[in-house]
Write a structure and sequence with these properties.
By secondary structure, this protein is an alpha/beta fold. It has ten helices and 14 strands. The protein has two domains: 126 residues, 3-Layer(aba) Sandwich (Rossmann fold); 147 residues, Nitrogenase molybdenum iron protein domain (Rossmann fold, 3-Layer(aba) Sandwich), CATH 3.40.50.1980.
Length: 295
């Protein structure tokens, strides 16, 4: 398995046929101009500007049901992705697997550099990284640096009470908050801690962001969701995989009504694949969070 320190590929043909094992990887490949070289990717992957004149990449499965046979049939010259239980099996089949970290803002930058190095396009990689840095540098820090924000990865609600849910700990989401001059309300060492209602009461965040690739049915009616998009179902933009929206919700979480975020009506749902994707496109999420904080 190859990592940043071990990648040493100079042949131009090394990346002629690429398989991507994650949407984040696909985003980086696309940004590097390698979208046309992808012959296989997961069902969760999307190309922002697919080349319709060539055959679309073969879907090779998902994170937990990757089809080794399908990967084999795509005849990849190289496979990119994050750490996965599939990597060893793919290497045992003789494939070159290049992994890259996906946990922090720095990891995302490093991942672009790893891919660019493996494909012998280092200069292009630095251009993409510079654009990524410039976009993040445009973000304006919040005026209130003491504002404490809790990020939740979806939730389940039963009779007005929340089940335990995952929150953002040491992660690229926490890095975004820091970049915006905000404090992560969760101060522990876990990357995605399981939070109970009691722990949220103790944390007492000033703002709550609920991130989801799809709207939480318990928190917002379908008609309100459509209104947030300002689109009707027939509009093709409703099927845009990169659509990212946010709207304020008023959850009736009975045990949490005394939490600052609920008392002050500061609970927002951010919906879209880019809200939960550790990719170079996360700048769109960061900009949206900054707008919500400013308002």
């Amino acid at each position: 398995m190859l990592t940043l320190s071990l990648v040493n590929i100079t042949q131009a043909q090394a990346c002629e046929r690429i398989v991507s094992l994650s949407p984040s990887t696909t985003d980086s490949l696309d940004a590097l101009g390698l979208g046309d070289k992808i012959v296989g990717f997961t069902r969760y992957c999307q190309l922002e500007h697919p080349n319709k004149s060539i055959k679309a990449p073969q879907v090779i499965g998902g994170f937990t049901d990757l089809s080794l046979e399908t990967v084999f049939l795509t005849r990849p010259s190289i496979i990119f992705g994050g750490n996965s239980a599939n990597n060893t099996a793919l290497e045992n089949l003789g494939f070159k697997v290049v992994v890259h970290p996906q946990q922090s803002l720095q990891d995302i930058e490093d991942g672009v550099r790893i891919i660019a190095t493996a494909c012998n396009i280092k200069e292009k990689g630095e251009q993409v990284i510079e654009k990524y840095r410039a976009s993040l540098a445009e973000l304006k820090p919040a005026q209130d640096s003491n504002m404490r924000v809790l990020i939740l990865y979806g939730y389940e609600e039963t009779n007005g009470n929340l089940s335990s849910m995952y929150g953002a700990g040491v992660s690229y989401h926490a890095d975004i908050l820091k970049l915006l001059g905000l404090k992560n309300a969760y101060t522990g060492s876990l990357s995605a801690p399981i939070l109970s209602q009691e722990s949220i009461l103790a944390i007492n965040p000033d703002i709550i962001f609920v991130l989801s690739s799809e709207p939480q049915a318990a928190s917002v009616a379908i008609d309100k969701f459509k209104a947030a998009f300002k689109l009707n179902e027939a509009d093709p933009k409703m099927r845009d995989p990169f659509l990212l929206v946010a709207y304020k919700v008023e959850p009736q979480w009975q045990m949490l009504m005394q939490v600052n975020a609920l008392k002050n009506n500061k609970v927002y749902e951010i919906v879209g694949r880019d809200s939960v994707m550790p990719s170079i496109r996360l700048v769109y999420l960061a900009k949206l969070m900054a707008q919500l904080i400013a308002n």
